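Here is a complete protein record:
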Amino acid sequence: MTGLIKYDLLQICSGVKGGFVALYLVFMAVLGIVNDVGSMFSYIFVFVSAMFGIASFSYEENYHWNRYTASLPVSVRQLVLARYGSVSICVAAGIVASALLGIISFVAGHAAITGMDWLLMLIQSMLCAVLYMEILIPMMYRFGAEKGRIVMLILFVALFAALSVVGTIAEEATMEQAAALELSMKYITMGSAAVVFALLPVSVSASVRIRAKKEF
């Protein structure tokens, strides 16, 4: 299964333009140094990195990878778990990049929110990325990369908008409101984490069933 994960990551790295990712990270780092906008969007890269992981489905179809894996001595469950593993690694890489961008913003003294609020937003971004993965992978197996891409974009816009709204509320809240909001968001985040991680085995199980019915 490790070899399958390595293959996915190699395909993702070859497809994702390294120059674009580097330019984006540099741009966000500069924003974090010169104004308070950078800290507000530094955590979003966690979510963007999940999109890069899901893109492995496109490479799979382009190179007819499914036909090859059908002859490998691995089970359908191993194939599916490898895909979840590769996307999870992309999300983890996004967390590291977002943390570095956040540190730059706070060191430069241009963070628009407190460290605790930013950490809470980072955790929420991670939960959104995991939820994104849980929804998209079964759908990609069911509809394929071409049709699934539409769902991917709609879901990305919806979750991105939700994160932006929460970030704006946190930024514009008064001190008293911020204290109440921070406490509420902690409980909401803990509840969301429980739901998101409880859905993970359900998502894996659905993906295994859908993938097992596919013929290549």
Summary: The chain has a mean pLDDT of 77. Residues 1-213 form one domain. Residues 115-172 form the longest helix (58 residues).
